[in-house]
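Need tokens for this chain, all 490 residues.
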Amino acid sequence: MMDFTKIGNQSIKISSGSINTNSCSSAASSITSCTTSSIISSDSISCSDSYSLSFITDNKDCYSQLLEDLTVIDGTQHAFYETNSGQYDKQIIDIERHISFKRKALETIRESELCYINDFRRFETFGLQIKKWLQDKREKDAFSKFLVSPANSDLDTLILTLKQISSVHELFLIDLKKRLEVWGPTQIISDLLDAFKSKLSIYDQFMENHPKFVMLLDALYKLPGFKKFMYATLGDNSDKKEVMDGLLHYIHIPLHRLNVYIRSLKHIIRYSDRSHPDYYSLLSVSGNFKSLEKKLSGKVNRCQSHLIALESILSIADCPLLLTMNLRLLLFAQLIKIDLDDPSATSDVRMYFLYNDTLIFCKKAKEKKGGEKKLEYKETINLSATTVRLLSPEYLAKMCEVKKPMFRIGKKTAEPIAPVNNEAFGFELVTTEFNVSGMAVPQMEYDGNGLLNGITSKRRHAIRTRSLIEQNIWVEAIYKAIRAAKSPIS
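Here are the structure tokens for all 490 residues:
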């Protein structure tokens, strides 16, 4: 809409130019009337030379004035013609360019639809190969259990659902191609997009079943030999991570498909004139797509965080975390684990994954030639027994200091060592650990009935962030996760 406003401003400027040109035309009319008055008032008229203007009057002064007036009139008419002609040509060029851009936006949708449909066709073929592979291995215990579990029927549901989505898009692609074949300046496409939007309720069904599909993929990845089967089926010369992400891709792309049409409609409306018969219908269709996206946004976020939770678990070697229907990944980033004995050290970089009930941190594992790139699991922090708090100003000051080297090479200097940074940011997690064996330093706790609950100890885990904004994001997210983990399940 801002672009239309700009175009509107240009139109006003052109109108202003036209007003100025009309003023010039009025001036020319007044000059013509003055000239006519001088001609009429002339005393004598002669037609001695048909190729000269001298036949109008013998008065040299009037003759010179007449030539001067006509010169001014001719110049004004020439300028008036050029101005209007240039503006008219520019309008024609703008209209043609906008029609071309509008067609390109539709062709972009067509190409995107074709790639989208081809993705689903590949999955349908691959899904049938998975079913055949499972049947071939049914004699083994792990496979026989899978075949009688709900995951096997979920695989059928996934294949069927993606096929239904693909069918809807195939029909839309056929209709879109027909419109583009007869494309013209007055072509209407809002009815086509509106009819297509009315069939997108299948996405709601897909998102309702999405948690089951994520659990299905988790079960498949745990089957013995499944990775080898994927490498053999999809591998070729592809990177191993790309192969392993292959299945995740197919249940990820439908989550954000509506954005494609919203962005494309924005461009189509941008290059549609307000006087076009389809303009306001396109605005209405665009609003309908945005309303649908807003309606599904909550489901999209939940599905996305569940899928990323699976992806993170697959990326961690020997990850103890088990995927459940309710597990969600809330936040992840590379942060610095603070050494409590040396707060200024910044070399211990870890990858932190914040789930809705757990915080896991890992370290980058050494890459093995030809092996998968994995993170090395380090520790799990149970949020239900954890509190979060900001680091004290005194501790932050220590984080800014530079530790003096034990041995100094070169001349000594009396100047103090400057801090690495003027500011430091971070927070700490205080975890209450429970030890039934009682081998640790005891801190006895009793419940309301006076019974011994066990022996607890507290541990600190300090984390350094790169900025105040990052610190606040993590503290707020951890605080909400802790509150949710501690709240009773209703």
